[in-house]
Amino acid sequence: MSIDVFNIPNDTSSSNIWIEWHKGLVARYGKSEANITFEMAWNEYGSTGANDDKLRKYLKSQGYQMDANFGEKFWDTISYPFKAGRVVSWILIILLVLIVLAILYMLVKNPESTSKAVTAVATRGVVS
To answer: Looking at the whole model, is its pTM more than 0.70?
Structure first.
């Protein structure tokens, strides 16, 4: 598949589109020229949404260092488990849902004892 290097990604383009576009530039013009062209296009059309860990790692492998601000680094850290291990993420989400459902079931089944238990947990055992 040939990448149209004249079709510059825009501020709504994902990191995957920017990566594929850069690969097309490298194939057509070489790495050095591709990095210069990428930088000019990114400064004009790039977006925070596309500036993710995947794009920065790819560009670093191509000899181009792209900086990330605090928010982008924070989001990369928070979203990493969901990118790296989808199975683990789904297991954690399912466990959380099951815990919430169990608490709701206990509240419906026996509201008085459940509220005492929740109060004890919330107050670290200090119940007046």
So the answer is: no
Q: What is the pLDDT of residues 75-120, one digit of tens each?
A: 666 666 666 566 677 788 889 999 989 888 888 888 777 777 777 7
Structural domain boundaries enclosing 118: 86-122
Exposure class string for 84-110: b at 16+ Cβ within 10 A, else e: eeeeeeeeeeeeeeeeeeeeeeeeeee
75 and 91 share a domain?
Answer: no
Whether 77 and 91 map to the same domain: the answer is: no
Residue with tokens 């199975």, as numbered in its chain: 87
